[in-house]
Amino acid sequence: MRIIAHLDMDAFYAAVEERYTPALRGRPVVVGADPKEGQGRGVVTTANYAARRYGIRSAMPISRAWRLAEAARRRGEPEAVFLRGNYRLYREVSGRIMPLAARGADAWEEASIDEAYLELSSLGGFDRAEAHARALKAEIREQEGLSCSMGIGPNKLVAKIASDHRKPDGLTVVRPEEVEGFLDPLGVRVIPGVGPKTEEFLHDKGVRTIAALRAVDLAALTGWFGRWGEDLHRKAHGLSDSPVSNAWEPKSIGEQETFEHDTLGAGFVLERAQTLAAAVFERLLDEGFRAFRTVTVTVRFADFVTTSRSHTRRTPLTTREALHGEALRLLLPFLDARENPRRKAIRLIGVRVEKLLREDDLDRSPALLALEGTP
Fold first, then answer.
1. Full domain range(s) for residue 175
2. How distant, in Å, are the alpha carbons of 215, 268, 308 from that of 334?
3. Do the beta carbons of residue 194 and residue 41 sit within 8 Å?
């Protein structure tokens, strides 16, 4: 019998800000881009639960979040605090929480900076798994002053859906015989992989709940979605055999910025590219990597046309200066007729590194390069 738990920190970035700045406690907190009094660009990264009562949600345009916060203020509600975010601090806190989650688990998987899966099958029963989860929640609160929500189920799919069921500070246990009854009334959007467009499509077909989705014939689902329809059919039945494993590596690390105003000013664009490159290099080191071979820049113009250009080096690059130099070399053609003959203003730029290498990889990089057949 498999027993899987999913741990999800509650409004993590905003909660960390409240934890380390007591004056923020009890106030609506929004982490993301600078709203610029409703004229800012970019999106909300996360919002605490006080801000969510105003309708503010992750991935919402920051300008809309500001307008919702202003409407609440005019109604006499507390004024929201908008923060750009301290991502180094968030990684430090996550780096202390994840070892707590891993301890005592048969296997452990860090799904993101604020989420983890735990294999607890060796505990032998859901009651013991629930006790383990309660102890873990208490330990995280005691050591970090933060709450988390947890779900426990017979697989990763059910555990993840369950962890979101009673946020914040929730714990939901779904035993094997309870899976379909638990899933049936939930909207299709709770299924991982079902985004707004898929949800809209299913709603147009009269499918709003997981119970209704389960009733759809497999042939119809594959007709609508191709091979992914088979996966959706299994998920509607609460089935998943995905293992809990940390045996994966990030394939790339990147940062991007949406400018406050569309621009073709070379000095400004190149200065922001340097800042992004520095942030990417810092994250590279934080993730335990020491080098990279591919640099990619992305440019989005004022008309929302988006283009990327990459270059892969035979010799690994190991310094911030090398990353900055490669990024600028790739970016410069977008500032003149080579890649921008119509002289369109730029809305967004991004810098990303790929083909990442750790210290051990650098020692044997010539052999790796020969295997990859890089020219």
1. 4-11+87-179
2. 51, 13, 10
3. no
Each of the 375 residues of the chain gets a pLDDT tens digit; together they read: 999 999 999 999 999 999 999 999 999 999 998 898 888 878 899 999 999 999 999 889 999 999 999 999 999 999 999 999 898 899 999 999 999 999 999 999 998 899 999 999 999 999 999 999 999 999 999 999 999 999 999 999 999 999 999 999 999 999 999 999 999 999 999 999 898 889 999 999 999 999 999 999 999 999 999 988 999 999 999 999 999 987 766 789 999 988 878 999 999 999 999 999 999 999 898 888 999 999 999 999 999 899 999 999 988 999 999 999 999 999 999 999 999 999 999 999 999 999 999 887 775 544 444 444 444
Q: Which of 33, 121, 157, 41 is nearest to 85 (CA)?
A: 33
CA-CA-CA-CA torsion sign (119, 123, 128, 134): negative
> Which residues make beta-bridge pairs with 171?
150
What DSSP string runs through 248-278?
---SEEEEEEEEEEEE--HHHHHHHHHHHHH
Tell me if 245 is assigned to some domain. Answer: no
* Residues involved in catalysis: 115
Three-state SS at 359 = helix
Instruction: State the pTM of this model.
Output: 0.73
d(CA 224, CA 231): 12
* Sheet containing 107-112: order of strands: 107-112, 115-119, 4-9, 148-153, 171-173
Closest CA to 150 of 138, 159, 158: 159
Say how many domains are in the chain.
Answer: 4
d(CA 50, CA 342): 46
Residues 190, 166 share a domain: no
Rounded Cα distance between 209 and 189, Å, is 9
For residue 216, being part of any structural domain is answered with yes
196: cis peptide before it, omega within 30°?
Answer: no
CA dist list (Å): 343 to 176, 258, 298, 336, 351: 60, 18, 16, 7, 21
Residue 46 has phi, psi (to 5 degrees) of: -160, 160
Facing residues of 4 across strands? 119, 153
Domain boundary among 179, 194, 213: 179
